[in-house]
C-alpha cells in the first residue's frame, strides 16, 4: 500500500490522501500523523473505497509523518464508526474522536509526575495552606488536579512543593490492573437466575451476535445473574463492557463486582483523571483491561477482544447523548455487538417499549426474572389523592404520607421521598412586583438552591447569588419561592420531624463517585432516616432497611407532554417503588397524585404493567411513533433571533415532499432560547419504510446557511425541547 486515504479527526475537513513513505508499515485502522499545510493532523487509515473523494495525482501526495504506536482500529470498529455517523447524521470525524478519546494515550512518555503530601509542614501556615493540606490527605495527582480537589490556586500548591510539603512521585502510566478471578466468590443462584445465567453463558461461549433482554423485577438479582456470563468471558480471556447510566451508580457496582470477582473493574467516565483515562484507554486497546464499567462513552473505546456487552438499567434516558454526536448508547451497543459478533444483554425492570417490541418480534431473546431474590415481596402500592387529601398551602406532604413517615421513623426504618426537581424551588418571584427570575441566556426560570445559596439555570449552568433587592422594582428582601424542589421537601420533613436525620440526594449533592459512596455508606449504617432525592435515587440502590417510598408528585413527569412522558413516569415511579422492602421487612409505596384515574397512575397502583404497555403501544402505533415509525428533530439556531428564524423559514421552503415522510415546522423550539442561541425546530416523522437519513442529508446539504447558524440533527430524539 503506497497511498492511503485518511479519516482525519477534524470534522471541518473531508477525507485526505497521503503517500506512505518507504519503510513505514500501515494497515486499515492504523492511527497516523500527517502533514497539513504547516501543521499536522491525526487520522485513521481507512479501508480503500469506503470514503468518498476524488483521486489526487500521486505526484501531489505528501508522505505520512508517523504511525502512532497503538493497535490499529479493528474492522468491526471501523464499521461501527461508519454506521453511527450514517445513522445519526453526524460527521465521521466526530464519531472517530469518541474512539480516540484519550489524546494522551496516543503518544508521549510512559511515566509522569504526580504529587502528594510528604507529611512535612510549611514554615509558615496560612489558612489556605491548611485547607489545602487537609483536603489533599490521601490524594495524588497533577498539580492542576490537586488544585481542583483542594479548591486553591496552582500557585499555592507550587509554593508547598518548593517547601517540600508536597512531593513529586514518578508513576508508570501503564501499570497493570488487578486481575479479576471468575471463580472468586460464586453465589448460589436461584433456579430462575440459574436458567437465565445458563442461556447467557452459552451465548458467550458461542461467540455469535445474540441480543438479550433481561426483564426482571426490582430486587430480582439481575446483577448477580449477568455476572455469570461476565465470568465466562473472563474464563475465555475476553473483555467485557458494562454500561451504567450514571456515575453515581458505579460505586455500588464496584463493590459488588469486587465481592464477586476479587478485584475492581476498570472504570471509564468523564470525571476520570487524565492519567487514569490514558491508562484505561491503553489497557482496553491492548486487551489487558478485562472488565470495563462505564458511562455511555465507554461504548466507543477500541476493545482488543470484546466478548460481551451488558447495558444495565437499559431503559434509562441518560444513555442518549444530547449534544455532539446525538447517539443512543443502548441502540449502538446492539450494533456494536452485531459488527463484533457477540452477545449483548439489556437489563431492566421497566424495559423501554422499543426493547419490549424487539423482544415480541423475536429480534431480542427475552429472559424473565419474575420474583425478588430471597423471597422478598414486591411492595404494596397505594395512591394518595391530592384532591381529597390536600396539604396546607406551602406544604407538599399529605396526611397519609406524613403518617407513613411517622410510623417508619418510630420503627427505626428508613424512608425515601422522590421528587424529580433539584434545588429548593423551581421558580422565584418578587413579592412586591411579581418579577420572575429568568435566565438571561435561556427561556427558563432560575431555580433556587438554598444549600449552595444560588439561583441556577439547569439548562446552561449559569449561577448567581440571590440578589438583595429585586432588579425590577428595587424592593429589598422580597424573594418568594414558588413550588417545591427536593431541598424544600427536606425542610418540610425536618419541620415535621425535628429529630429525623434527613439527606438530600441529587446530582448536586452526589455528583462525584466519592460522595455517592459516602452517601451509600451512611444509609447502610443507618445514619440517615429520610432520603429526599431526584431520579438519581430511583435505580440501582439496595437499602434493606428502607421500607417506605413516597412519590411526592407523580403528575410532574406527565406535564411536559412529550412522546415518552407516560412511559418515563411509569418507569421512574416503578423504579423508585422498587427501592422499598428489598430486605426482610415488607415495603410500602405511597404515590401522591391529582389524577388517580390517569391510565399510567392506575397501572402503577394496580401493578398492571402489561396493560400499561399494551395501551401505550397502541397509542404509539396510532401516532406513527417509535417503534412503529421514526422521529427526527432538526434545530436551527443562531445568536441572532432573526437570522435563526429566516434560516429556518428558508429551509422549510425547500422541504422534500414525500409520501412516507412528514415534516412539521419550523416553529420556535419549546426552549426557544438556550445558552444565548435562538432556536427553531422541525419535527420529522417517518414511516419505517422511509429512508430518513438520506432524505435529511440531501435536504440539508442543498441549503447554504450563514456562518452564525448552527444546524443540529437528532435522530430518534428523547428530548423534545
Ligand atoms: P436488581 O438489580 O434486579 O434490582 P440486585 O441485583 O440489586 O437486583 O439484587 C438485589 C439484592 O439481592 C442484592 O443485594 C443482591 O446482592 C442480592 N442477591 C441477588 N441474587 C443473589 C444470589 N443469587 N445470592 C445472594 N444474593 C443475591
Ligand atoms: Zn440558562
Verbal overview:
The protein contains 20 helices and 29 strands. It is of the alpha/beta class. The strands form seven sheets. The chain has a seven-stranded parallel β-sheet, with helices on both faces. Strand 22 (502-505), helix 14 and strand 23 form a beta-alpha-beta unit. The radius of gyration is 27 Å and the shape is globular. The structure holds adenosine-5'-diphosphate and zinc ion. Residues 187-190, 193, 216, 218-224, 373, 542 line the site of adenosine-5'-diphosphate.
What's the mean pLDDT score?
92
Distinct small molecules: adenosine-5'-diphosphate, zinc ion
Q: What is the general shape?
A: globular
Cα radius of gyration in angstroms: 27 Å
Structural class category: alpha/beta
Largest sheet: 7 strands, parallel
Oligomer: single chain
Strand content: 15-25%
Strand order of the largest sheet: 10-11-9-12-13-8-14
Give the count of helical stretches: 20
Kindly report how far apart the N and C termini lie: 49 Å
**What is the number of strand segments?**
29
Amino acid at each position: 500500500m503506497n497511498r492511503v486515504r485518511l479519516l482525519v479527526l477534524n470534522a471541518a475537513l473531508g477525507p485526505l490522501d497521503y503517500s506512505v513513505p518507504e519503510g513505514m508499515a500501515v494497515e486499515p485502522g492504523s492511527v497516523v500523523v500527517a502533514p497539513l499545510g504547516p501543521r499536522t493532523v491525526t487520522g485513521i487509515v481507512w479501508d480503500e473505497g469506503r470514503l468518498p473523494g476524488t483521486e489526487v495525482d500521486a505526484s501531489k501526495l505528501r508522505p505520512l509523518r508517523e504511525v502512532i504506536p497503538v493497535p490499529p482500529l479493528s474492522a468491526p470498529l471501523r464499521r461501527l464508526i461508519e454506521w453511527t455517523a450514517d445513522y445519526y447524521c453526524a460527521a465521521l470525524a466526530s464519531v472517530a474522536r469518541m474512539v480516540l478519546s484519550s489524546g494522551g494515550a496516543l503518544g508521549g512518555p510512559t511515566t509522569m509526575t504526580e504529587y502528594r503530601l510528604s507529611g512535612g509542614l510549611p514554615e509558615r501556615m496560612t489558612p489556605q495552606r491548611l485547607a489545602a493540606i487537609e483536603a489533599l490527605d490521601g490524594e495524588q495527582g497533577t498539580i492542576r488536579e490537586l488544585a481542583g480537589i483542594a479548591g486553591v490556586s496552582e500557585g499555592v500548591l507550587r509554593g508547598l512543593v518548593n517547601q517540600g510539603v508536597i512531593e513529586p512521585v514518578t508513576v508508570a502510566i501503564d501499570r497493570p490492573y488487578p486481575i479479576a478471578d471468575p471463580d472468586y466468590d460464586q453465589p448460589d443462584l436461584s433456579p430462575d437466575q440459574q436458567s437465565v445465567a445458563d442461556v447467557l453463558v452459552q451465548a458467550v461461549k458461542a461467540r455469535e451476535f445474540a441480543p438479550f433482554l433481561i426483564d426482571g423485577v426490582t430486587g430480582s438479582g439481575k446483577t448477580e445473574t449477568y455476572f455469570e456470563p461476565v465470568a465466562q468471558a473472563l474464563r475465555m480471556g475476553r473483555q467485557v463492557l458494562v454500561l451504567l447510566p450514571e456515575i453515581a451508580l458505579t460505586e455500588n457496582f464496584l463493590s459488588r463486582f469486587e465481592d464477586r470477582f476479587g478485584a475492581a473493574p476498570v472504570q471509564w467516565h468523564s470525571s476520570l483523571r487524565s492519567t487514569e483515562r490514558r491508562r484505561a484507554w491503553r489497557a482496553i486497546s491492548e486487551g489487558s483491561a478485562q472488565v470495563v464499567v462505564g458511562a455511555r462513552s465507554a461504548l466507543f473505546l477500541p476493545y482488543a477482544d470484546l466478548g460481551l456487552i451488558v447495558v444495565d438499567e437499559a431503559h434509562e434516558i441518560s444513555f442518549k447523548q444530547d449534544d455532539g454526536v446525538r447517539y443512543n448508547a443502548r441502540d449502538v451497543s446492539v450494533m456494536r455487538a452485531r459488527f463484533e459478533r457477540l452477545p449483548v444483554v439489556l437489563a431492566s425492570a421497566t424495559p423501554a417499549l422499543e426493547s419490549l417490541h424487539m423482544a415480541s418480534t423475536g429480534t431480542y431473546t427475552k429472559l424473565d426474572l419474575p420474583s425478588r431474590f430471597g423471597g422478598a415481596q414486591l411492595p404494596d402500592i397505594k395512591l394518595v389523592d391530592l384532591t381529597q387529601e390536600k396539604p396546607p398551602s406551602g406544604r407538599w406532604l399529605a396526611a397519609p404520607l406524613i403518617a407513613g413517615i411517622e410510623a417508619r421513623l418510630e420503627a427505626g426504618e428508613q424512608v425515601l421521598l422522590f421528587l424529580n426537581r433539584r434545588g429548593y424551588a423551581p421558580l422565584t418571584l418578587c413579592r412586591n412586583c411579581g418579577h420572575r427570575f429568568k435566565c438571561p441566556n435561556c427561556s427558563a426560570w432560575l431555580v433556587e438552591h438554598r444549600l449552595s445559596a444560588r439561583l441556577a439555570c439547569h439548562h446552561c449552568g449559569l449561577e448567581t447569588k440571590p440578589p438583595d433587592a429585586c432588579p425590577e422594582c428595587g424592593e429589598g428582601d422580597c424573594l418568594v419561592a414558588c413550588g417545591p424542589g427536593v431541598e424544600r421537601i427536606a425542610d418540610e420533613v425536618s419541620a415535621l420531624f425535628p429529630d429525623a436525620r434527613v439527606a438530600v440526594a441529587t446530582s448536586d449533592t452526589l455528583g462525584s463517585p466519592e460522595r455517592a459512596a459516602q452517601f451509600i455508606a451512611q444509609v447502610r449504617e443507618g445514619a440517615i432516616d429520610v432520603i429526599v432525592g431526584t431520579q438519581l435515587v430511583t435505580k440501582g440502590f439496595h437499602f434493606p432497611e428502607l421500607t417506605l417510598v413516597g412519590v411526592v408528585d407523580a403528575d410532574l413527569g406527565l406535564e411536559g407532554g412529550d412522546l415518552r412522558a407516560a412511559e418515563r413516569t411509569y418507569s421512574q415511579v416503578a423504579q423508585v417503588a422498587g427501592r422499598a422492602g428489598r430486605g426482610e421487612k415488607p415495603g410500602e409505596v405511597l404515590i401522591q397524585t391529582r389524577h388517580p384515574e390517569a391510565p399510567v397512575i392506575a397501572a402503577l397502583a394496580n401493578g398492571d404493567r402489561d396493560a400499561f404497555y399494551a395501551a401505550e403501544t397502541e397509542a404509539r402505533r396510532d401516532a406513527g411513533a417509535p417503534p412503529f415509525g421514526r422521529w427526527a428533530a432538526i434545530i436551527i439556531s443562531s445568536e441572532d433571533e432573526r437570522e435563526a428564524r429566516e434560516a429556518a423559514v428558508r429551509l422549510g421552503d425547500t422541504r422534500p415532499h414525500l409520501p412516507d415522510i412528514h415534516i412539521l415546522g419550523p416553529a420556535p423550539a419549546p426552549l426557544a432560547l438556550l445558552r444565548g442561541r435562538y432556536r427553531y425546530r422541525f419535527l420529522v416523522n417517518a414511516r419505517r419504510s422511509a429512508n430518513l437519513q438520506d432524505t435529511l442529508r440531501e435536504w440539508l446539504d442543498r441549503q447554504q446557511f450563514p456562518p452564525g447558524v448552527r444546524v443540529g440533527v437528532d435522530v430518534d430524539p428523547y428530548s423534545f425541547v
